[in-house]
Amino acid sequence: MTTLTRGPEAVTLPAPAPAGRGRGRAVTIALFLLPALVLFLLLVVAPILVAGYASAFKWNGFGGLPTDFVGLDNFTRLFSSDIFATDLAHLAVLVLFSVVIQLPFSLAVAMLLNQRIRGRAVYRLVFFAPYVLSEVITGVLFSLILAPDGGMANQFLSVFGLESEFLADPDTVMPALFLVMTWKYFGFHMMIYLAGRQGIPNELIEAAQIDGATPWETFRHVTLPLLGPTIRISVFLSVIYTIQLFDLVWILTGGGPSHSSETMAVTMMEFGFKRSQVGYANAISVVMFVLSLVFALVYQRAVMRRDLEGATTSMGGRR
Amino acid sequence: MNHGRPPARRRRPTLPLHVIAWIVGAFILVPIVYALLGGFKSNSQLSGNPFGLPDPWVTSNYTDVLGSGSFWRQVWNSTFIAVATTVVMVGLSALAAFVFARFAFRGREALFTLFTAGLMFPFAVAILPIFVLLRTFGLLDDPLGVILTQAAFGLPLTIIILRGFFRSIPGEVEEAAIIDGCSPFGFFWRILLPMARPAMATVSVLAVVGSWNNFMLPLVVFSDETSWTLPLGIQQFQGQYAADTARILAYLILAMLPALGFYAIAERHLVGGLTAGATKG
Question: For a tag site, which of A251, B225, B242, B246 has the least CB within 10 Å?
Answer without folding.
Answer: B242
